[in-house]
User: Fold this.
Amino acid sequence: MWMVWVILGLGCNPAVAGSADREAQAEAYRLSEEVDRLVKKGAWSGVERLYISAVKTGAPLSHDTHISGARSSMQRGDARSARSRLLAAYEVERDPATLEWLTTYSRQYTQVTLRADAGAELQVERRHFDQERARVVDRAVELLKTTGQFDGLLPMGRYRVGAFWFTIKEDNEDIKADLRACIKTASCVEPSPP
Assistant:
């Protein structure tokens, strides 16, 4: 019986656990260095892949690594993921520039959840000149069209899916709409503010 306890005890050995933590930290550091190198090259798909791998190590990441992850999210048009990564960066370092970026997201982007039949087309009344915002809208258009769903952040603007119009203003409330039935019957109405 004592042999079982000795064997089980090895799994809880602090030295073994400390070694695993050091390995995770070393791997996270290596991946963060690679992220920095790829950011300088503008290789955003590589930044995204390595950032996700660094997060999976479970080791703490630097403010700059989280900022690089947020920038890679915006390159993909994923504003919600970018905001989440900015929050992680701000938790590591209370940087005023990061807070300003987060404040912009809170005021100028709104959580939107849309359900429609695949093939539905999300249109924006006026195309955004800002490339980051345009990528966010393009991603939403593609997701709604291919999957019939979009669940993420959209920037301020006036949008339409079929006969359903909605407007995102500064400090807007979340928008949720299941448009599967109303698009077919053209009975969609803009959601009223609460």
User: Anything to note?
Assistant: Residues 14-41 form the longest helix (28 residues). The longest strand covers residues 109-115. Residues 1-17 have pLDDT under 50 and may be disordered.
